[in-house]
Amino acid sequence: xxxxxxxxxxxxxxxxxxxxxxxxxxxxxxxxxxxxxxxxxxxxxxxxxxxxxxxxxxxxxxxxxxxxxxxxxxxxxxxxxxxxxxxxxxxxxxxxxxxxxxxxxxxxxxxxxxxxxxxxxxxxxxxxxxxxxxxxxxxxxxxxxxxxxxxxxxxxxxxxxxxxxxxxxxxxxxxxxxxxxxxxxxxxxxxxxxxxxxxxxxxxxxxxxxxxxxxxxxxxxxxxxxxxxxxxxxxxxxxxxxxxxxxxxxxxxxxxxxxxxxxxxxxxxxxxxxxxxxxxxxxxxxxxxxxxxxxxxxxxxxxxxxxxxxxxxxxxxxxxxxxxxxxxxxxxxxxxxxxxxxxxxxxxxxxxxxxxxxxxxxxxxxxxxxxxxxxxxxxxxxxxxxxxxxxxxxxxxxxxxxxxxxxxxxxxxxxxxxxxxxxxxxxxxxxxxxxxxxxxxxxxxxxxxxxxxxxxxxxxxxxxxxxxxxxxxxxxxxxxxxxxxxxxxxxxxxxxxxxxxxxxxxxxxxxxxxxxxxxxxxxxxxxxxxxxxxxxxxxxxxxxxxxxxxxxxxxxxxxxxxxxxxxxxxxxxxxxxxxxxxxxxxxxxxxxxxxxxxxxxxxxxxxxxxxxxxxxxxxxxxxxxxxxxxxxxxxxxxxxxxxxxxxxxxxxxxxxxxxxxxxxxxxxxxxxxxxxxxxxxxxxxxxxxxxxxxxxxxxxxxxxxxxxxxxxxxxxxxxxxxxxxxxxxxxxxxxxxxxxxxxxxxxxxxxxxxxxxxxxxxxxxxxxxxxxxxxxxxxxxxxxxxxxxxxxxxxxxxxxxxxxxxxxxxxxxxxxx
Amino acid sequence: xxxxxxxxxxxxxxxxxxxxxxxxxxxxxxxxxxxxxxxxxxxxxxxxxxxxxxxxxxxxxxxxxxxxxxxxxxxxxxxxxxxxxxxxxxxxxxxxxxxxxxxxxxxxxxxxxxxxxxxxxxxxxxxxxxxxxxxxxxxxxxxxxxxxxxxxxxx
Lengths: 817, 155
Prior knowledge:
Chain A is α/β, with parallel strands linked by helices. Helix content of chain A is 28%, strand content 17%.
């Protein structure tokens, strides 16, 4: 069978197609070495879990073990395609170092125990603190990788039964700005666009979104359009020479932290050239005059000065946007984790509102997610939002949620916005949060300023519960470790960046005593003996399907309406986009097709915030600004980053992902093909900066910020001068550094700054000043960075990143190729 | 004309607010959102004071006499225990910023009235711009107070 090597060809073979045509199917499958498809016992329905794209697949099972995966041909999201992380990541399920028994800390050492002992300890500590201090002592920090049913249950337990305001997800680090920008512009969260817009667009603008690496299958779709008749033109805004930049008609590489100045100049040019759909603006928006006034001073020359991009290129970019008939924009971490995150993302929405480019084929916005189930964290309210996109500041919304839960509304905290992750950590640091339950995330590597995070998580005053499938850097600090089942070992639903809901079914048993996260949360609730207003056990559900049914009641009538879906339906159909209810049984491809938004004062999820200070508006102010519930054009001035390069720290340090890994590599680092493709941390340096520092490809260097230092090999790449990039995946579980020797010089978050966007509260991982110091002793070996991606070397002699041709591709016409 | 006096007073109160915001940023440097946003907002007040310096000569005020404004009397502590309790001090400081920025916003309003009566369109535009920002400073202090107070008061 002729095959492809997914490591060297992450996007696979082209299936060219033209504008308005359906994306051709191509089914990718990969099985464990030596296994033929007919030897597989069962194929079990699921979707991908190592990025936010939501590609549908079947899990191959043999003798009770996962042995491979196959893309689902009919699914709207991927039409059979899979990326490298999907093809190889499942191997982590069988890793010999999975957690299989609960652990409790005894005399300073984590010791194996049984579930009763572990969960009774968690429950009794909870009760003690509730008696002693109340709900303000308890906090929950969850993930973007569990299932909807688990988040909904966690939200009900935390916000409802316990009544703490302190609940967030690591979605705070990846997708909080997407949600915030949607609320600011449209009154409510909810992705306006659809992946299908790629089939129709004539211009695709990618803002800080290296789609080629974060969502390989979606990028295949763009590449297939580029290879077909009447291809779209691309605009790329990114300081790195990403694969997206290479395919773009216009590439702008702004100085990190200056996105708002750039966006204001693009808006300035659209207004100056009257590329405005005045009818749309007049009928469907508020705020136009203010936007015109505020952007007036941002000429392309002004942007050139602030952003370090040529004024001519800004004009070309504006012309691209202005001449588009069907404009699709996507936004991700280059905006979300940068200075003025929400303000910049909102300006992308403004481009679409000004041009009337919403709600029709090819005309849409995709404020992207970073994680597979981030959408669910948001809609279920496990991440600093209220369940069902309700408005915490609207008494009626809170009362409605209390009715759904059958609880007294006073039990649901709504005196302030739900506490965001960095503030929960601050309360833990100061000792007023004394119990923190972390599920499926690894803050000891992924949060900014790690020395501080390790210290606060380790302190005596904090009772730390960690629920995970592996002994992560965070689990090592815990008082109780709860072994969790993962993808493929439990059933639940997940929703991707374009609102597509998939069911992921249990394929195999979890190892040892590991249990599904849902069972753990529900077991805790029963031990705590939570009751609803009628004295019935709360939550009132007992398994995944009953949790899903309960969630449908909580989301009904809100934008994230799942009431037309059942497990039965999801087993029969491929992915369905919410809202899906009686009137829209097949789901909804695009939101806002009629220019009507969820923005009426009675409906909206948020009354909005000041885009510079983050101060919330109240209901009265919102009513005055937007009485008819239109979309809001919100203008904002450029404010410089809080830490800028100086003589001691002359570089801007940004962090990010590589194609082959996910987060802190708990799974991808345990998948041999992925690990080999990007085995160690590196730092990207521009050729002229490398020359000045006397560096050759692969030379060891030290990178420092005012907060910490790491050591890595230098990759000389086409990154902007003055900018350093370090991937954030590399922590310490496989670095050989023991807890005692204290070597903590690998994780880029040793250096990142504790600063966040005041609106979305998303930490700014792409704003830190740093210095670079050659350590000498280069041995001619290149940096361990992939050559296939944005980290491609300028030195052509570096051996290309390669794997093995072990994955079959079948196209509809032909069979395997 | 008493516009000169109003300009002097506003210059003094904006400068005092800028100093106060920087003091708050510094005093609560571990509360990073307070530190960063208060720093940004101090910059606004500096800009406003600068704007007044530009306008002042038209009303017979020598910019040199604005250079070292006397601080206003907002400095005193007001919550018992504030000196030894950092959380309480934060609440007290945010209350103070709220009141000071409210006073500044009101003074810009007042100056706007004066600008209308003397038909100084440029001054009027400045008062509208600066008043809007003073109100945003005020809203920030209020919003931050609302967010951090429950945990402080309950523990």
